[in-house]
């Protein structure tokens, strides 16, 4: 027996409408075409599917068994077709995000909360286990968007600039560097440096500040939570370098001082990496807009103990 989806749809329509004429209208067929379709199906099955002498037209026992199959299969098919249509129209898809910055949770979670309300049909997830291998995972299709400050040339990957940020040193308020007004790499040689538990190459304080100068801090301590790191610093147990937007709430903290790296400060740029083929997706364009605006709101009002650079509200760095 060669059973097609159109057979199941026709059987269901006839049962629901109670006759060939109304069912044919629903199915956009002529009554004759529908009658021939059912007759051909019955010949294949070797049994009658309808009790033709009844009004309204009723299914036979064999027809009822086939109807149960239709009621199980057709909703699944209809759902799959709706999903494909949504994908084609750009309403559905997948957005699995990985980050190469431990502290990005501070602004990314509010962004994704806004996003999921606007795009409920997009499968959303954060893949934290891929933090150190996020860009290769993007190429392999394991994730769809990577937050990174270190672009690498990779086939089929595009980097969309998000915003500039200033890596900023946090020290106790009574630290000698406060009088100097900024930090040089040599100033960290005798310090306990507190960082997030990340690969050293992914930490700005090493890759952009200490390593180029050939300086190693006296001690290196890793701490998971920003709040814990700040408590340790306030207690005089170390110093840290964090993005300015992470420190937005500490600008008025009397126990801490925020200092630029170098007399002119340092500026870095954060990017969203994604596959070039996904750039045209409407939901991807929306999430990019969100990740550019939320951090800017977080940075408003930030000021250093001494600074020569400031982040304007449009997200671009100013001199």
Automatic annotation (TrEMBL):
Main location: cytoplasm
Cell compartment(s), UniProt: Cytoplasm
Key words of the record: Amino-acid biosynthesis, Cytoplasm, DNA-binding, Methionine biosynthesis, Transcription, Transcription regulation
Cited Pfam families: HTH_1, LysR_substrate
Domain HTH lysR-type: 3-60
Statement: the UniProt record of this protein carries the keyword Ribonucleoprotein: no
Domain of life of the organism encoding this protein: Bacteria
InterPro entries: LysR_HTH_N, LysR_subst-bd, MetR_PBP2, WH-like_DNA-bd_sf, WH_DNA-bd_sf
Family: Belongs to the LysR transcriptional regulatory family.
Protein name, entry field: HTH-type transcriptional regulator MetR
